[in-house]
Design a protein that fits this description.
Helices cover about 30% and strands about 25% of the residues. The protein contains 15 helices and 20 strands. The longest helix has 20 residues. It is found in: Cytoplasm.
């Protein structure tokens, strides 16, 4: 190991503590009975007895020594609070080593400590814990980044410097990021609340949360490139799921009226500001419903979530926009949306004509793309970025949606919608295809595309077709990307800011 000077010093402190009989990593539990934020919010000068026997634990951050008194800041999961530590309070009788040696010299910035005492307000108005006992709970052997602030006298503004802001370091060392940049915790807390609100909404409707396989013998349910692995005992390839759609539909065929799953999906594709190879999605399937019903349900669900995380307000700010999650949302067909933003009516165009249009619009394509993929490329390049407020794009060409039911009144289309917010898709839904003969023909078309080199084409799943042959009721299904929804509901522009541990390249060696 190549240790810095500070790391060497901290290891020396570790050994000195042990020589003094102090375990730097004690096994005993420390009973915490309060949080810093709660104390600061609830302390009342007229009733100080409320916080006379307080036990807090967290990292020791800022330390300021004043003779026989030390002021420090303790940071727990809720925030920071000032500590007042007097030599006479924590010293053990005539032995002042605990203060003079341990506190002043052997404890370091970032060490975990437990403190007990009472709360008071200083003459400067700072709510403070007067420490009567102090216990080392865990020694930190690496120094945390020292984020500093100073007040600019001319303007009164606070300036931050030496901040831990490099995105790669922040995302790679999230444990450091969350410690020195606790403000970023808010997005992750909101993410948890989004998932909880969504789960409550579904549970209150009586739909069942289930679990389906992550390792699948056939990848299906979406147009995506899978990760592949090998099972030694069975001596067969397996795929990390790209979607859970086909398994959830099996459960509808098995007699459940409504099932949903919130879980990880894996797609062996590119990485950018809105894509991570491992992501969280929710998929739900409800029997005897169609995509018109699903559009209304999505509006109700997203409004419920927005109000749950935003003080009962469905308006959530993203950049300069205020996104209104209360329905109804605008509805626009796929063909009409392309016509609106390009002027081209593609409804009667064949593959060759679409290729010519892509060239005119300077959209890059390749020979593996069929009619559906070409339309998708045009839509992605010319339409998506304009859809800021929640907008349903509905009635997709059949070539784009091999798992969706044919439109009840429009030939060549399927009953499908995608919901777009801030120029990105966050939800995808169908009136599900339950005709096994039609489904087989669609999957055979996908095999033709795969033979042309389309790595995202779907595979043939004979067991799923068998389930449809036994019979599946009319059903509507929906998928929502949790990560992207969280981005937009927390005003974040990259998926890495709402994933605790985004996928990253290996660290460079020494």
């Amino acid at each position: 190991m190549h240790l810095s000077e500070q790391e060497i010093i901290r290891r020396e402190h570790l050994e000195e503590l042990r020589k003094l009989g102090i375990d730097p990593y004690p096994a005993e539990a420390f009973a915490v009975n309060a949080l810093a934020a709660d104390i600061k919010a609830q302390f009342n000068d007229d009733a100080p007895e409320q916080f006379q026997t307080v036990a807090l634990a967290g990292r020791m951050m800022v330390v300021r020594e004043k003779g026989k008194v030390t002021f420090a800041e303790l940071q727990d999961s809720s925030g920071r609070i000032q500590l007042y530590i007097s030599r006479s309070d924590i010293a053990d009788g005539e032995n002042f080593d605990l203060y003079d040696v341990v506190l002043k010299r052997l404890l370091d910035f970032g060490d975990y400590i437990g403190v007990k005492g009472f709360v008071f307000r200083t003459r400067m108005g700072e709510i403070t814990l007067h420490v009567k006992s102090l216990t080392l709970l865990s020694k930190s052997l690496r120094p945390l980044p020292m984020v500093k602030t100073r007040v600019i006298e001319a303007t009164g503004e606070t300036e931050v410097y030496d901040a831990f802001t490099d995105p790669e370091q922040r995302h790679r060392m999230r444990y450091v990021d969350l410690t020195v940049n606790p403000q970023f915790k808010a997005a992750f807390i909101t993410r948890s609340r989004i998932i909880s609100a969504m789960r409550r909404f579904f549970d209150d409707k009586g739909w069942l949360e289930v679990e389906t396989p992550i390792l699948q013998p056939i990848h299906g349910g979406a147009a995506a490139r899978p990760f592949q692995t090998h099972h030694n005992t069975l001596d067969m390839p397996l795929y990390m799921r790209i979607a859970n759609e086909l398994y959830l539909k099996r459960l509808i065929a098995g007699g459940f009226d409504g099932v949903y799953e919130i879980g990880k999906m894996f797609r062996n594709e590119g990485m950018d500001r809105t894509h991570n190879p491992e992501f969280t999605a929710m998929e739900i399937y409800v029997a005897y419903k169609d995509y018109y019903w699903m559009m209304e349900m999505v509006e109700q669900c997203l409004e419920h979530i927005a109000r749950a995380i935003n003080d009962n307000n469905p308006l959530i700010k993203f950049d300069q926009h205020e996104i209104n999650y209360a329905g109804p949302y605008r509805r626009l067909t796929m063909y009409d949306s392309i016509k609106e933003y390009t002027g081209a009516d593609i409804s009667e165009m064949d593959e060759a004509q679409l290729r010519d249009l892509c060239k005119q619009l300077h959209i890059e394509i390749d020979n593996s793309m069929g009619r559906g993929k070409l339309i998708d490329e045009i839509f992605g390049a010319k339409v998506e970025k304009n859809l800021i407020q929640p907008t349903y794009i509905i009635d997709y060409p059949v070539e784009m949606s091999p798992l969706a039911k044919k439109h009840r009144s429009k030939a060549g289309l399927v009953e499908r919608f995608e919901l777009f917010v801030n120029g990105k898709e966050i939800a995808n839904a169908y009136s599900e295809l339950n005709d096994p003969i039609d489904q087989r023909e669609r999957l055979e078309d996908q095999l033709t595309l795969a033979a042309r080199g389309d790595h995202e084409a779907m595979a043939m799943d004979e067991d799923f077709l068998r389930a449809l042959e036994y019979g599946m009721p009319p059903t509507s299904g929906l998928g929502i990307g949790i990560d992207r929804l969280t981005m937009f509901m927390t005003n974040n522009h990259t998926i890495q800011e709402v994933l605790f541990f985004p996928q990253m390249r290996p660290e460079k060696g020494e």
